[in-house]
Amino acid sequence: MHYDEFGLFHENAEEFGLPYDGPPDVRRVEVEVAKGRNISALVWGSSSPELVFLHGGAQNAHTWDTVALALGRPLVAVDLPGHGHSDHRDDGPFGPRQNAVDVAVGLRSLAPDAAMVIGMSLGGLTSIALAAHAPELVRKLTLVDVTPGVDRDKAAPIAQFIAGPDTFESFDEILARTIEFNPTRTESSLRRGVLHNAIQRDDGRWVWRYQRPRLLEGTEMDIPADFATLWDDVDNIKVPLMLVRGAAKGTVVDDADDAELRRRKPDARVELVEGAGHSIQGDKPIELARLLEDFLAS
């Protein structure tokens, strides 16, 4: 099956009613974060990036494509270690704190002056850890449907999806499983997502791009104890923070998490997006972009 990484943006624009005057200025770059190991990112625009986006576990930087098109701002969307086009790593599970070290190296090179970091799920937890590890890189922070209160029960559907087959006989098979576990998403958007997030092997079978064994050890499939310790990092975040919650089935943020965030950071802004589950950037990207614009201007 033919795949052009930069050839699908017109579909995003058409599906969500965005103006489209031709392919946007997007390029893929790599930054060495450790000897012999790189992280990859999508750089949108030619001027200094204003925004940084970190995706969730088992996703990749293209999950933000529609949001990026809606915003029309220079930005960087990072492939977390072991995801997308970033190199795999064999030195242990890549949880938020490990990710934050690599992301900090990448951002010092690609987006040292960004006005805001936006992180979803694992990327949101990574952004909390980033604010503690490299606070000079985080001037505003938006968490997309995640807090350190995520646990095994809340993340069970995500874990079930990630724990699926290692390989798939056809593209239709891998797409069908993705549709089954993402009832709030359109088939067209999920098809694009699978094209960006899977590859066809020489034997014709399809596999996910992300480093599956390590993902199972270090994220939603195996909630490590240090997720909860990220609440201590929230206590120390001095910059403006916004939490965007999904209101539909599949969210991993409940009212108790919302209350705990407000208790620890009373000035936090919390927004609820109707019709969105866990993946708000996929379910309601235009609404998310509007919230980001408003928060950025505040």
Structural class of the helix and strand makeup? alpha/beta
> What name is given to the CATH topology?
Rossmann fold
CATH hierarchy class name? Alpha Beta
Taking all residues together, what is the mean pLDDT? 93
CATH superfamily caption: Alpha/Beta hydrolase fold, catalytic domain
How many structural domains does the protein architecture include?
Answer: 1
User: Overall 3D geometry?
Assistant: globular
Gap from first CA to last CA: 45 Å
Q: Tell me the helix content.
A: 25-40%
| Rg (C-alpha, Å) | 18 Å
- The ordered H/E elements are HEEEHEHEHEHHHEEHHEHEHH
Explain what this protein looks like in three dimensions.
- The protein has 298 residues and is α/β, with parallel strands linked by helices.
- It has 12 helices and 10 strands.
- It has an 8-stranded mixed sheet with strand order 1-2-4-3-5-6-9-10, with helices on both faces. Strands 7-8 form a two-stranded antiparallel sheet.
- A hairpin with a 5-residue loop joins β7 and β8.
- The mean pLDDT is 93.
